[in-house]
Design a protein that fits this description.
The complex is a heterodimer. Chain A is globular. Chain A is mainly α. Chain A has one domain: Orthogonal Bundle (MetI-like fold). Chain A starts with 8 loop residues before the first helix and ends with a helix. In chain A, 77% of the residues lie in helices and 0% in strands. By secondary structure, chain B is of the alpha/beta class. Chain B folds into two domains: 152 residues, D-Maltodextrin-Binding Protein, domain 2 (3-Layer(aba) Sandwich), CATH 3.40.190.10; 133 residues, Periplasmic binding protein-like II (D-Maltodextrin-Binding Protein, domain 2, 3-Layer(aba) Sandwich). Chain B has eleven helices and eleven strands. In chain B, strands 1, 2, 3, 4, 5, 6, 7, 8, 9, 10 and 11 form an eleven-stranded mixed β-sheet that branches. In chain B, helix 3 packs parallel to helix 4 and helix 6 runs parallel beside helix 11. The longest helix of chain B has 28 residues. Chain B is globular. The termini of chain B are far apart. The chains are: A mainly alpha, B alpha/beta. Chains A and B meet through helix 3, helix 10, helix 13 and helix 19 of A and helix 1, strand 2, helix 3, helix 7 and helix 11 of B.
């Protein structure tokens, strides 16, 4: 039974109208960033855009991006193979340990490496590789699980050893997943502000922040922002193109798992390798956290922490609510109607997936000053920023939820005489509610972790857990920052655990939406 | 779908709604006027003082902390609808720039009278609240006294390659660059900056990080303001300080004496409160705070301290320029961008 109606265009008109606010919110930052960057004319824009400074930032950014992507793909693929295809002891435990760094926001990893004195390129490389490694591991592990083991068995039966079989048969089939994961990692490195700013490695995001903080004139920050956005959109398009191109099984037949490989003498090096990854990606940051928690025990300010937590919850709740309300029409359209205008609306609403948080914030500051004064430096503008950034998470949740509610039930309700609006309210929405609520929860958590946009858009005097951590780490007050980092890790652990459970307990492919959602916050 | 998951969904949505409505209350929860201060001075340094301002002026004070140049730029971009009432700047140049743009109002005479002639704007639109000098901070285990730079040109020597730290977005650094422009002209300043950049200096987020890096032996030499050293020395004890200060002397930009200062915005809707706030910063209590806690030179006459052993103000040998000369801050940023240091 199909849940999409190809001939739905006329009926979709009302829904398209309802989806318009989401599109406006999503593309508004992009438009204002370009307007602000060019408001002294294109000559000024180009004179700033082609300066040696831009070249320097590009070189730094691309260098870090390549280093992180290559190491994440190599280590992530190897680790995925070890936990899915070998007879390793405690495979499940290893899997959990390897996925958990997803719960460490990049700036918490940055805080940890900074407090251990690893800064600059090595620090940024470590912080971003370790927190993003699961983005490769998860899709590759899923591809390994779903790939038909028959081909590998044929290869082995024809005399190839395990290594050769891996290189010649297995690798080509998981390669698309690994590349897609690598591109997602690259996109997050491009977006990352927290880790690079704390570790003093000048990529575009930090360059924008420095230009913004150190300059009376705000045009240069906007210009560099536009350059970054162009790069980010190119990368996001490449990532979208690669996503979902995993090779699947060749023919019909019963799906089964591959026979786990007995490692024998190779066990020790493989185990050692996994242990090293876990030690660096989980042990180091948690170790630093525990150390500084111990140091700061005596001066612990519980009242400030509670107040900051309350502010964080308020902002994130408003962000989640606004984002989901905006996303419902878009998600419904995407699930129930397929036409060119619908696809255009969905694509536009996904702009936030490509836009780095700091550029969205910059654009909204300009927008707020000129056109939304009553909202300027108030909660609504921050909520607008969250919505622009995280609409993709909410839309994909709504779409999945609506698509899994059978369209036939709606038809029955309509045939019994109910109007379309009532059918949506009394049938579709209740059926999709759990999925939509799960999406709202994910947006909530992602908002709670967000750093760069919150820094620029928060109301005067308000601090969230993330901004407090960033400010305290910025003046080397590691002990004071530690409780905030610990709380943030706890908050972020929720989606990572849900993800781990859903992917590995059921053994199915990770749904793109879940992966997207749970990992979106990693780019702070 | 099970009943349980529907209930869970309802619970999640209810929680979100509850928390959001709470947030709504938080926004409108204040009564009476609120004074909004943009502070380019670091929160860690001045928050304890600003917390006392509420009582002194009898109104709620909301402080937005940020970098001085960015906040000045923000006020300029916000125009007449700026939410800011007061600008508390880390640098006289930023105040001068806003004053030139016609954004600051004349301060009450009583406030202006607290400061000597050279520490306030000629038109009375801003006044210095405390003074500080540029210094070279160094690690004596890596740098001997004989090697120390006599002037800023010595920093261009290849022996300092990669060994000098500075904070590119910091207003005091930019004021120092403005001083180079004023003393040596645009071309002279550009030449110095290009050579400085070619020597691969290390960038830091702020002066605190420069101080700590030198004190921990990770950086041989840094350019910053004097009080960061004294503040830490006061905390950990002078004998525990590995880093030392070096004062450049003579007619050199490296010995610039700059000011933190305050101005009231023309567009402020709470001028009385804003003026009271400026008065509070010039009060004996606040001036004592700057002397005791932030280890700066107070502007008000007759304030002394036993907390820190600063080099007396009259023994410093600053270059021959006035604070008002520092107002071309936007031009400095443009030059820094041209050279690729911002």
């Amino acid at each position: 039974m199909s849940t999409t109606r190809a001939n739905g265009a006329p009926r979709a008109a009302g829904w398209l109208l309802a989806a318009l606010p989401a599109v406006v919110v999503a593309v508004l930052p992009l438009i204002y960033l370009v307007l602000r960057a060019t408001d002294q004319g294109w000559d000024v824009f180009w004179s700033i855009a082609v300066r040696s400074r831009t070249v320097e930032l590009t070189v730094n950014t691309v260098g870090l991006l390549l280093a992180v992507a290559v190491s994440a793909v190599a280590l992530g693929t190897a680790a995925a193979w070890a936990v899915t295809r070998t007879a390793l002891p405690l495979r499940r435990v290893w899997t959990v340990l390897l996925v958990l760094p997803l719960a460490v926001p990049s700036y918490v990893a940055g805080f940890a490496w900074l407090s251990l004195d690893v800064v600059g390129f090595p620090g940024a490389w470590l912080a971003l590789t370790t927190t993003n490694l699961p983005l490769v591991l998860l899709p590759v592990a899923a591809a390994l699980r779903s790939a038909d083991p028959a081909l590998e068995e044929v290869s082995r039966s024809l005399g190839h050893g395990p290594w050769r079989t891996f290189a010649k048969v297995t690798l080509p089939r998981i390669w698309p997943s690994a590349v897609a994961g690598g591109l997602l990692v690259s996109l997050y490195v491009l977006h990352d502000f927290g880790a690079v700013s704390l570790l003093r490695y000048e990529t575009f995001t930090l360059g924008i922040q420095t230009a913004y903080a150190g300059s009376f004139d705000r045009t240069p920050a906007a210009v560099i922002g536009v350059v970054l956005v162009v790069l980010a959109i190119l990368l996001a398009l490449a990532e979208a193109r690669m996503r979902g191109t995993t090779a699947s099984r060749l023919g019909p037949g019963v799906a089964r798992q591959a026979e786990p490989l007995r490692l024998r003498r190779a066990s020790a090096p493989v185990l050692l390798g996994l242990a090293a990854i876990v030690a660096v990606s989980l042990g180091a940051p948690l170790g630093a956290l525990v150390k500084w928690l111990g140091v700061g025990r005596t001066a612990f300010d519980g009242a400030a922490l509670a107040a900051t937590t309350a502010t964080t919850v308020q902002f994130a709740a408003l962000g989640a609510l606004a984002t989901v309300v905006l996303a419902i029409p878009v998600g419904f359209l995407a699930a129930r109607h397929s036409s060119k205008p619908v696809r255009a609306v969905e694509l536009a609403a996904y702009a936030g997936h490509a836009l780095p948080g700091i550029t969205v914030a910059l654009a909204l500051v300009y927008f707020g000053v000129r056109f939304a004064q009553p909202w300027y430096q108030k909660t609504p503008l921050l909520v607008l920023g969250y919505a622009a950034l995280f609409l993709p998470i909410a839309i994909s949740s709504v779409r999945t939820a609506v698509a899994s509610a059978p369209a036939g039930v709606e038809d029955v309700a309509r045939s019994l005489g109910r109007g379309r609006a009532r059918v949506f309210g009394t049938v579709t929405l209740p059926l999709a509610a759990p999925g939509i609520a799960a999406g709202a929860a994910l947006v909530f958590i992602t908002c709670a972790k967000e750093l760069p946009a919150t820094l620029l858009l928060r109301p005067t005097g308000a601090d969230t857990l993330a901004t407090a951590l960033w400010t305290k780490t910025g003046i080397s007050a590691f002990a004071e920052a530690a409780p905030y980092a610990a709380l943030l890790v706890a908050v972020s652990a929720v989606p990572a655990i849900l993800l781990e459970v859903s992917v590995f307990r059921s053994g199915r492919r990770p749904e793109e939406a879940v992966l997207d959602s749970a990992t979106r916050g990693a780019q702070s | 779908m099970s009943l349980r998951s529907t209930r869970l969904a309802a619970a999640i949505l209810a929680t979100l709604l509850g928390a959001s409505s709470l947030a709504g209350c938080g926004d409108a929860g204040s009564d009476g006027p609120t004074l909004t201060v943009y502070s380019g001075r670091n929160e860690g340094l001045v928050k304890p003082l600003l917390d006392k301002a509420e009582k002194a002026i009898g109104a709620k004070v909301n402080v937005r902390y940020g970098d001085t140049a960015a906040l000045a730029g923000q006020i300029s971009e916000e125009g007449d609808s700026s939410p800011a009432d007061v600008f508390f700047s880390q640098d006289a140049g930023a105040l001068g720039a806003l004053s030139t743009a016609g954004r600051l109002d004349k301060l009450p005479q009583g406030v202006l009278d607290t400061a000597a002639e050279q520490w306030k704007a000629a038109d009375g639109t801003w006044v210095a609240t405390s003074l500080r000098t540029r210094v070279v901070v160094y690690d004596p285990q890596q740098v001997t006294e004989a090697e120390l730079p006599k002037g800023i040109d010595d920093l261009l020597d290849p022996k300092w390659k990669g060994k000098v730290g500075f904070a590119p977005s910091n207003a005091s650094w930019q004021a120092f660059v403005t001083a180079i422009r004023v003393l040596r002209g645009e071309d002279g300043a550009k030449t110095w900056l290009e050579k400085f950049k070619a020597n691969e200096p290390q960038k830091f987020e702020n002066n605190i990080k420069i101080r700590d890096a030198v004190d921990e032996g990770k950086l041989p030499l840094g350019l910053m303001n004097h009080y960061y050293w004294f503040e830490k020395a006061h905390q950990v004890g002078i004998d525990k300080m590995r880093a030392k200060l070096h004062y450049i002397k003579g007619d050199d930009p490296g010995s610039l004496v700059n000011a933190a200062g305050v101005g009231v915005l023309k567009s402020s809707k709470h001028k009385d409160l804003a003026n009271k706030f400026a008065e509070f910063l010039m009060s004996a209590e606040s001036q004592q705070y700057f002397a005791d806690k932030t280890a700066e030179y107070p502007v008000r006459a007759g304030i002394t301290t036993t907390e820190h052993k600063l080099v007396p103000l009259n023994e410093l040998q600053p270059p021959n320029l006035k604070l008002a000369d520092l107002q071309s801050l936007p031009k400095t940023a443009e030059l820094l961008r041209q050279v690729g240091l911002l």
